[in-house]
Write a structure and sequence with these properties.
Largest sheet of chain B: 9 strands, mixed
Helix content of chain A: 25-40%
CATH superfamily of the largest domain in chain B: P-loop containing nucleotide triphosphate hydrolases
Bound molecules: adenosine-5'-diphosphate, magnesium ion
Shape of chain A: elongated
Largest sheet of chain A: 10 strands, mixed
Distance between the termini of chain A: 74 Å
Number of domains of chain A: 3
CATH architecture of the largest domain in chain A: 3-Layer(aba) Sandwich
CATH class of the largest domain in chain B: Alpha Beta
Strand content of chain B: 15-25%
Number of helices of chain A: 11
Oligomer: heterodimer
Distance between the termini of chain B: 89 Å
Structural class of chain B: alpha+beta
Shape of chain B: globular
Chain lengths: ~450, ~600
């Protein structure tokens, strides 16, 4: 970042902490960018003539006489069609050796969409994964994270979803990605021959953690360009938002804020909401859908990060290994798509809502039967049937390696149900039973 | 001359302003940046420094910017034309704003000053009047809308003149009042009121007692709320808080419904303004949107305005209550408002209370819930604000300050439970833990006896006892095994399941089941309780389960069918047949 000739250079830092430094300076705007010995920093506090900067790369080795230059603008990105197919770092600088793209410079983390200018989402996103399409149907304009332990294949599932969803652009926001995962995404997108409509903003484990804080806003600023200016359907992938939140807590704790639950800043909810609420369906056809990853520790969803996320997003997709069938499944109990009712039974077959609920309820009965078994009780005939059902349902429907269309998912579910249960055990509307339940011979 | 100031410091949306004159706590001021006037509220004063919370993004703000103080607190405009509006937390009309994105410093009036309203006087020259007395009436969305003596006027006034029946705009003077000194006070159809002050221009606030029908069975039957009552819905994310509030807002027997979307999802607001213009109010047949006002400060809108949004909504509710109307106010979620308070309290470096919330959180919550209620107006008419708030406890743990503070303030507790939601038993209100204090009010009991029936309350109590018993029995079965308990236990358990599946559970997304008027509730409750009183004979527990599943299935089919339709009666007949199969001689005796 070249400094312009007329800019004033400050060289007297008065205070340095692990993530911030302070100096006396005049005419500085809140949230303005600066460079500190060439490293990027952002104004986070101004008291009188004392300005505090958050230094993205950390303050290790920072000298009190470092050269500080204020850039007169908040972090920004040049948006335009030339973004397509490119890889950038957290500051929006190319990391693929290509030229700096041309376009209008816009500040990232810009204003929110007026709620009355939104349209109700209504377009189903088909992924082929029945644990998603059948039980937790996704809709364009939705925001939804995968909740998964670090050992689950969430990035693979997410990449599959992204490639199967019919969208105009995929924007990857990688935060604390391992180099291997970064290369995985790069390969899978290039093998699928879709690199030209993918844009990536990447912060790897090798980059300073505080830089991550810019990634979601960079990705979403690019997304807004394509969704608003070009009326495109944009899918934004954010992985891993837990590492984003960790970076937030590093900064806020170093700014002496009172931490709330799990040493997260009290503003965590608002900070995350600002990102996720960028998901939107516009009346002119453009949309931003956000699929994120929130890694859990030991499956604990009461931790402040997944907890606040769950309160913000429109559901969550919970991955877990089902040891009975030896496969990773989309857990039907803890997973939820809050927008599914906008499409199921409307864009899909009429029996979808009731059938889905019936199967999940019986899967819950199977879980109870399993507990009974583990506690050494005899199983009833019903319990046995539930357990048999659960195995088939888990491997043919819930497993993440399933790839079929929605009608086939419905037919398969009916088939499994009919093989194990009687009509009155299903609690499904009689009309639907008559029309769709296969007769078992 | 009003006070001016200069920006001296910026910490996120907290700005420190050095002032040149007097300021008051909660006074509104405007920070003049290059592009816009940013609205802010004084929240602390130390010597010549006022600490203000800015209702907008503070990006680009600089030390040295000028500030103008307004001499008043945060106010709303009250007049005809508020119904069907989509407002933000500061009462700006969102539809009047230009462009796709919200712009800092754009403020739009919720009312239309050009529109003509048909005005009919209710008072006449010479009448003695006081604040909130009705001077006249206009029609808003075909509902009578009272034009009142401004709430800010204290003491007694005389009507000097009042205009004749006719069409007037909001700018026109419709009456002139005289105070005791003989000063003339012109009155228009619009007035202003500071949102943080409770509007108390009524005669008295007796205990509420009239059932407010919500159409949600588990509320109306098991935990009824009353006109002017208060309730809250705590629950982990995804357990159904918002769906339940929306269900209530669609069916409740209220004249005016105000939805305060406080720090939650924008798409949930979109759902309301997409669906409500199409859906009908089941009580009047008019479109739902005609009786609805949305106050939206969604989670991505400025945090400081979140706190304002609930007060804005409450003040509008108080305005309509003063007209003698039944107002239902819902806020989703009050926890977001508490979090906004917490963020600011931390920035002010106040001594933190539990979980870093402000020390006086409980008192703030209680003060807010206290503004709801059933009132007798000065003219003897009645009006009410029923308030239902949701609470989003961190980690789903109800032992946290917002839930505990709210529990002290609200009279109904609708506890949503993760386990019930996981097993799709919606609405996931825990039937044992939840309560309504109104059931204990003798005046409520009397009202129910008069308007519903004598048997209602005893039947509800019988139902609750059976649910409790069913739960105990289930725990025993879990410990001792299916074979380890007598068959009677299984029968009791399954009878309680019939109540759960048929009365308590209700599908908010099924056109028919979603709406259950009180007559239908009464019919089904009688039917179900009738079944639970029957004596059945079985040989083993699997028979019991199989049999009751059939019973439940038929009753659910009835819930899904139009009330008293042929299909409904057909299922009812099937049920009678099925019951005959298993009831013992004892029942005939
Ligand atoms: N009464 C109900 N009937 C059917 N489904 C429901 C009901 N209540 C909640 N749900 C389901 O639960 C989901 C979450 O409900 P919501 O009200 O958004 O939860 P919360 O506001 O508590 O986070 C809904 O999207 C819906 O799928
Ligand atoms: Mg909600």
């Amino acid at each position: 970042m070249a400094t312009k000739a007329f800019q004033k250079i400050y060289t007297k830092i008065t205070q340095i902490t692990k993530a911030t430094c302070s100096l006396k300076a005049a005419n500085v705007g809140n949230e303005e960018l600066a460079t500190v010995d060439g490293n990027l920093a952002q104004v986070v506090k101004i008291i009188g003539d004392e300005v505090t900067l958050q230094v993205f790369g950390g303050t290790e080795g920072l000298r009190t006489n470092a050269e500080v230059v204020f850039m007169g603008k908040a972090p920004s990105l040049r948006v335009g069609d030339q973004l397509s197919g490119r890889f950038f770092n957290a500051f929006g600088d190319p990391i693929d050796g290509g030229p700096v793209p041309e376009g209008n410079e816009v500040e990232i983390g810009g204003p929110s969409v007026n709620p009355v200018r939104r349209k109700q989402p209504s377009e189903l996103i088909a992924t082929g994964i029945a644990g998603i399409d059948l039980n937790n149907t996704l809709v364009s304009g939705q925001k939804i994270p995968f909740f998964a332990d670090p050992d689950q294949p969430y990035n693979q599932v997410m990449a599959n979803v992204a490639l199967r969803a019919k969208t105009d652009k995929i924007i990857l926001g990688g935060m604390g990605l391992t180099n291997d995962d970064y290369l995985y995404f790069k390969n899978i997108f290039s093998n699928a021959g879709v690199l030209d409509h993918i844009i990536s903003f990447v912060n790897t484990t090798e980059n300073p953690p505080v830089e991550r804080l810019l990634i979601p806003d960079m990705a979403l600023t690019a997304a807004e360009y394509f969704a608003v200016e070009k009326n495109e359907k944009v899918l934004v992938l954010l992985t891993d938002m837990t590492l984003y939140a960790d970076a937030l807590s590093i900064v806020s704790n170093r700014m002496d804020q009172i931490p709330s639950k799990d040493s997260m800043p009290g503003s965590l909810y608002s900070d995350l909401a600002k990102i996720y609420e960028k998901a939107v369906q516009f009346p002119d056809g453009g949309s931003i859908t956000i699929i994120a990853v929130t890694t859990l520790s030991g499956g604990d969803i009461t931790h402040a990060i997944p907890d606040n996320t769950g309160y913000i997003t429109e559901g969550q997709l919970f991955l877990r290994r089902d040891t009975d069938v030896g496969k990773v499944i989309v857990d039907p109990f803890r997973s939820l798509s809050r927008l599914k009712q906008l499409v199921i039974g409307k864009k899909t077959r009429e029996d979808h809502p009731q059938l889905m609920n019936a199967a999940v309820r019986l899967f819950a009965d199977a879980a109870n039967a399993k507990t009974k078994l583990e506690n050494g009780f005899d199983l009833s005939d019903y319990d046995e049937r539930c357990l048999d059902f659960a195995k088939e349902y888990s491997s043919q429907i819930l497993a993440i390696d399933v790839n079929i269309d929605t009608t086939e998912m419905l037919d398969t579910t009916w088939k499994i149900l009919a093989a194990h249960f009687r009509v009155e055990e299903l609690n499904i509307k009689q009309d639907l039973v008559n029309k769709y339940m296969p007769k078992v011979s | 001359m009003s006070t001016k100031g200069i920006v001296k410091g910026i910490i996120s949306n907290l700005v420190i302003v050095e002032v040149d004159g007097p300021v008051s706590q909660n006074e509104i001021c405007y920070i003049l940046s290059k592009e816009a006037r940013l609205m802010a509220e004084v929240i602390k004063v130390v010597g010549p420094q006022a600490y203000v919370q800015v209702f907008e993004s503070t990006r680009g703000l600089k030390v040295g910017f000028e500030v103008e103080f307004s001499d008043h607190m945060l106010e709303v405009q009250l007049g005809p034309g508020l119904l069907s509006r989509n407002l933000d937390g500061l009462q700006n009309d969102l539809d009047k704003m230009e462009g796709v994105f919200l712009r800092s410093g754009e403020y739009t009036s919720p009312l239309n000053t050009e529109q003509l309203w048909d005005f009919k006087p209710l008072a006449k020259a010479g009448d003695k009047v006081q604040a909130a007395d009705w001077l006249g009436e206009t029609q808003e969305n075909l509902q009578p809308h009272k034009i009142m003596v401004p709430f800010v006027l204290e003491g007694l006034y005389t009507v000097k003149s009042i205009v004749e029946k006719g069409s007037y705009t909001l700018k026109d003077t419709i009456a002139v009042l005289l105070d005791v000194q003989g000063n003339e006070i012109p009155v228009t159809m619009v007035q202003r009121w500071p949102v943080k002050k409770a509007l108390k221009a009524y005669k008295e606030k007796p205990r509420p007692f009239r059932l407010l029908e919500t159409g949600v069975r588990i509320i109306d039957i098991a935990n009824p709320i009353v006109e002017g009552g208060t309730g809250f819905i705590p629950g982990p994310f995804g357990t159904g808080k918002t769906v339940l509030q929306h269900a209530i807002s669609k069916q409740a027997e209220a004249d005016i419904v105000i939805m305060a979307a406080c720090g939650e999802r924008a798409n949930e607001v979109v759902e309301i303004f997409t669906e409500f213009p199409e859906l009908e109010d089941p009580h009047t047949g008019r479109k739902l949107m005609e009786r609805t006002i949305i106050v939206a400060n969604t989670s991505n809108m400025p945090v400081a305005a979140r706190e304002a949004s609930v007060y804005t909504a409450m003040t509008i509710a108080e305005y309509y209550r003063s007209m003698g109307l039944k107002v239902l106010l819902m806020a989703d979620s009050t926890s977001r408002w508490a979090q906004a308070l917490r963020e600011m309290s931390n920035r002010l470096e106040e001594l933190p209370g539990q979980d870093a919330f402000p020390m006086d959180l409980s008192a703030i919550i209680a003060g807010f819930y206290g503004r709801a209620g059933y009132v007798i107006l000065n003219n003897g008419q009645t009006g009410s604000i029923t308030f239902i708030g949701t609470v989003s406890p961190a980690g789903g743990n109800l032992k946290e300050p917002v839930t505990e503070g709210t529990k002290k303030a609200a009279r109904c507790f609708f506890a949503l439970e993760q386990a019930r939601a996981d097993s799709k038993r919606y609405p996931a209100i825990n039937p044992i833990e939840s309560y309504s204090k109104y059931i204990e009010y003798p005046e409520f009991e009397e009202y129910i006896q008069k308007t519903v029936s004598d048997e209602w309350i005893p039947m509800v109590n019988e139902m609750k006892t059976l649910l409790q018993r069913g739960k105990e029995v289930q725990e025993q079965i879990n410990i001792l095994g299916d074979d380890g308990v007598p068959l009677d236990y299984h029968i009791t358990y399954w009878k309680s399941e019939v109540i759960d599946f048929v009365i308590l559970q209700q599908d908010a997304f099924d056109k028919i089941d979603a709406l259950c008027p009180i007559e239908r509730q009464q019919y089904m409750l009688k039917k179900v309780m009738g079944i639970t009183r029957l004596d059945f004979g079985f040989d083993n527990f699997t028979e019991i389960m199989d049999y009751f599943k059939k019973v439940i299935n038929i009753l659910r089919q009835m819930n899904y069918s139009e009330f008293e339709s042929d299909k409904f009666k057909e299922f009812e007949k099937q049920l009678e047949e099925l019951l005959k199969e298993r009831i013992t001689q004892k029942n005939q005796g």
